[in-house]
Design goal:
Rossmann fold; 4-stranded mixed beta sheet; 387 residues; Rna Polymerase Sigma Factor, Chain: A; alpha/beta
Amino acid sequence: MALAKRTISILGSTGSIGYQALDVIDKIPHLFDINYLTINTKIELLEPQIAKYNPKGVVIQDETKYKEFKQNTSFKGKILCGEAGLIEAASDKANDIILTALVGFAGVIPTFEALKNGIDIALANKETLVSAGEIITATAKKHNAKILAVDSEHSAILQCLAGEEYLDIEKIILTASGGPFRNLEKDKFKEITIKEALNHPNWSMGSKITIDSATMMNKGLEVIEAKWLFNLEPDRIEVLVHPQSIIHSMVQFNDGSVKAQLGLPDMKIPISHALTYPRHLDYNFGRMNLAEIGNLTFFKPDFDKFECLQLAFEAIKIGGTAPAVLNAANEIAVEYFLAGRIKFIEIPKLVGKALGSLKITQKPTLDEIVSSDLSTREFVKSLININ
């Protein structure tokens, strides 16, 4: 099947996923026109992207950096600011697809507005489905828009399900590297430094997602995301620790057969598949040599040691705004850990306190989800400031 040229906007173009997506597009420039590029604060990295891709417009979320950029740039296209700018860029009807690589809850509203205009989403912002999965998936269905996950695990599941009947799925198995602390005793967690937590053994990612991997909250968020992407209840989603990160995930069918998707731990592979779905185009990405890899090993996750993973399963079973509370509490806890304000072991404690203390609304509206997100952040900040 030949692919038609598409217009794309990249939300978060100077982050890890944004950079890698542009690198993928560089290899297939005949298939994409760049519409908008959006950033938070890194205007010094945006300028060379503008020179190279000549977008229709840019968005700078930070107001101070927006003013600085406007005063000093020679760019003649649209220059937008803040959440309003993100929404305008994401929902622009010139878009055929947007790659949303924003960090955290900031991705929810722009994604929702894009879906309302029938724009396909290459989703690298898992917090969107974690916080508002029911609303987001219903909106995509209503407006006939695709949500194509960029996470390697969900991309693997999508590939395993090609040509299969959803009725035949018994369960899906999400693999996890286990992060840098999979072999560290729990009583040593109180000594973990920021530098150690940011030292992921397999993947190169942004700081927030790297910390989430270290706590295994990242896998918990992926469990919630998988529920909405594949319409499965949590008891049909399993997590398996696979330190080599070669098998990216698996599907077990009703007859006991299992399909797995394998590949080197390189985010450009799932990015390229999301952008050119359902094709697997010819790229010079690294090739896997199983003889050299030798062994693939698997372990059950330690829910006692990695409490964030257990909390994510609890949140999705509670439902309603509980996953939004989980996500917001985790975002603030990770932010304060990276700032040196709290210890690593306090991250799950703060998330658990928020889940156990705050009101959960079932069947929430989008406004109620936004309100829950804001109130959770204030609650967790108050706990940190008390201490």
